[in-house]
TrEMBL record:
Keyword Transmembrane: yes
Any Pfam family hit: Virul_fac_BrkB
Protein name: YihY/virulence factor BrkB family protein
Entry GO terms, CC: plasma membrane
Keywords: Cell membrane, Membrane, Transmembrane, Transmembrane helix
InterPro entries: Virul_fac_BrkB
Record-annotated membrane-spanning stretches: 21-48, 88-111, 131-153, 173-191, 203-226, 238-262
Cellular localisation: Cell membrane
Membrane topology: Multi-pass membrane protein
Length: 308
């Protein structure tokens, strides 16, 4: 299947299966899961670093978000890190387990949405689905900690260690490249394990690359739009941060779900839409063949008349 046909099939399937609506639902549940995930991440980070530095380091991560959304997340992180360090350490195990379990609800709904767009009915048991959601959530928390290390800790290390001129610039560029690669692999793992179907393909495929590129581009574009032209504070007041964060999550989830549709089309997952399209193409090819045969007969008859 060509790239153009794959993307068109994916676009039709996303539209017919209400991908924007599914993305909105997933974004809402992820919003509810975001702050438990922050609790888990801050609790883990507080075990190995001074909690007072968490807010400063995570602020560099949130700089990639729209300003209103970043202020909402940074405010929550500051409240978490203002707790005594002893409470972060002693209650870490219980807090992390409860926070990961609470945050897994959003990931579980994302898995359900991906199966819906694949046209698959998830036949796995509740325990298997919950275990998958918990595993993906825990992996997401670990990925967030790695991202903080790349974006915030690496520059701090470079400030302390004397480096050769030019190495700092290269390191600053490489950390964003590595972060983008990590996002791509994370989406690939999600597409590999979320659909209830056997998969023999690799982790990084066409749909994964499209989803990662779309997610990065629309996130950057939306952040620039909100910071430069958007004025949600006048319309929504104190709720501006919540609204902007929900919109950012919705755009990102739509990109991921569209990429899932591309993967479904690439893997030739059979749905009503693909069957209908195949029948249409078969009829079109049959008509083209009849027209071509008619032209051949006409040409032969014309040549024969000209010879006589």
């Amino acid at each position: 299947m060509s790239i153009v046909r794959t993307f068109l099939t994916a676009w039709r399937q996303a539209s017919s299966r209400q991908a924007p609506l599914l993305a909105a639902g997933v974004a809402f549940y992820l919003f509810l899961s975001l702050f438990p995930a922050l609790i888990a991440a801050v609790s883990i980070y507080g075990l190995v670093a001074d909690p007072a530095t968490v807010a400063d380091q995570t602020a560099r991560i949130s700089d990639a978000l729209p300003a209103d959304a970043a202020s909402l997340i940074n405010g929550q992180i500051e409240q978490l890190t203002s707790a005594p360090s002893s409470s972060l350490g002693l209650g870490a195990v219980i807090a992390i387990v409860l926070a990961v379990y609470a945050a897994s609800g959003g990931i579980g709904n994302l898995v359900t949405a991906i199966n819906q767009l694949y046209g698959l009915q998830d036949t796995r048991s509740f325990i298997a689905r919950k275990a998958l959601a918990l595993g993906l959530t825990a992996a997401g928390v670990v990925f967030g900690l790695v991202a903080i290390s790349l974006v915030a800790v690496v520059p701090a290390v470079l400030d302390v260690v004397d480096v050769v001129p030019g190495v700092r610039l290269l390191a600053n560029a490489l950390r964003w490249v590595v972060l983008a690669g990590g996002i791509t692999i994370a989406i690939g793992v999600l597409y590999r394990v979320a659909p209830d179907r056997p998969s023999t393909s690799g982790i990084v495929n066409r749909g994964v690359l499209i989803a990662a590129a779309l997610w990065l581009l629309v996130s950057l574009g939306f952040s620039l739009y909100v910071d430069l032209f958007g004025n949600y504070s006048k319309t929504y007041g104190a709720l501006a941060g919540v609204v902007v964060l929900l919109l950012w999550l919705w755009i990102g989830m739509y990109a991921i779900l569209l990429g899932a549709c591309v993967e479904a089309a690439r893997e030739h997952i059979v749905t009503r839409e693909t069957l209908s399209e195949d029948e249409h193409l078969a009829r079109q090819r049959s008509q083209d063949a009849e027209v071509a045969a008619g032209l051949d007969r006409f040409t032969e008859e014309l040549d024969e008349k000209l010879r006589h």
